[in-house]
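Example record used in the benchmark description.
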Amino acid sequence: MPSFSAPAALKLVQDKNIDIPFIIVSGAIGEDTAVTTMKSGAHDYLMKDKLAKLVVAIEREIREAKMRQDKKKTDEMLKMSEEISVIPLMIPRWAFELSPLMVKHSTPTRRF
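Model output (structure tokens):
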């Protein structure tokens, strides 16, 4: 599409904050444009006369996108874990010293 460039398409995807494989397929892309677009975030580029490599590129990029999603999820879980582990540090020491008394008084008495 002469009126719509690969860098413009990449910018649209990035502006929407969509993490999908971005592979440029072109018959006329110059090497400088391809390198610049790859540095900007494109995952791969192929020339139209090399479409036999497209399936391999798509499969690889789908695997890598899944790995990025898994890493993002792991990072979020780690952050939550770190935030939760800080909570006990925010509670004064005397609260821990009193807690056995509170538990003792808060348990119901059983009658036999």
